[in-house]
Amino acid sequence: DTAMTAATTTAYQVIEKQIRRTPDATAVVFGEFELTYRQLEARADDIAAALAAAGVGPDAVVAVALSRSPDLVATLLGVLKAGGVYLPVDPAYPANRLESMLHDSAPVVVVTDRATVESVAGTGVRCLLVEEITTACANPRPSLRPDHLAYLIYTSGSTGVPKGVAMTSGALTNLLRWHIGITDSGTDSRVAQFTALGFDVSVQEILSSLATGKSLIIPDDETRADPRALAAWLRQERISELFAPTPVVKAVCEAALEGGFDLPDLREVCQAGEALTLDARLKRFFLDSRTRLRNNYGPAETHVVTSHSLHDRDTDWPTVVPIGTPILNNH
To answer: Which molecular-function annotations from GO does this UniProt entry contain (predicted)?
Structure first.
């Protein structure tokens, strides 16, 4: 029985409660740059006010064309606080895909920066440069319900034309409540912001970190693309949680084995988007560590609906990992 009282709070309110608990803890790290939860909220407030002034309110789509950065995290929170619908747009997408997504979703505005504005400048959508957003003079507090939309993400289009999949704030809050209940929390935890921003797991990765008082650590693009560099970065940055698909998990573990080092701080690896299979070397890597391996499953239309955890060192881990059992309020 997975039934639990339905969420009555929005996803942003879940984050806001954590901000009140740990305002001075580190929320986001990118190289030498850090933001506390208090500073992140202040930046999100500024962005939310700018969005509200641009006409954003409940269920209004806001496209976000930014590379991974603290400003992207603040913009995601700002969109949610303004009541908008977060639509991640990768500036590296082909021009026809960008135009198709923006035409189909009809965003009120696209938040971008000077480095990426050219990728969306010709789409006809109003651009808001994040560098030009200054201190807010008003703090928007729209009346939001759990059935208001929180994000809109487009599928890859591998089986045809990409389609937009919208998620309500209530469904997202349910996912966060489940995640909070099954993972360790605390300001000593460090979560890698690895997942591609156009993949729905990135929303869980970012928001679950902030909802539990953890630090979200952002790698640069070169590190993210190189398994050896990524494995070394995970060790150097003392990353405790990694969200990544099976091929990346295997490549990182193989790089660590070849490099002759372990990842002692890595406590949880969440895999989604691929079938999870374990060969002998990958099993040994995890069995020799204290890392829990979690296999999450769910289509884009629902996000995670089932999950299976491998953490018992006294049992034989399967070669093909099952998709597990339903999460809260799923069956």
So the answer is: phosphopantetheine binding
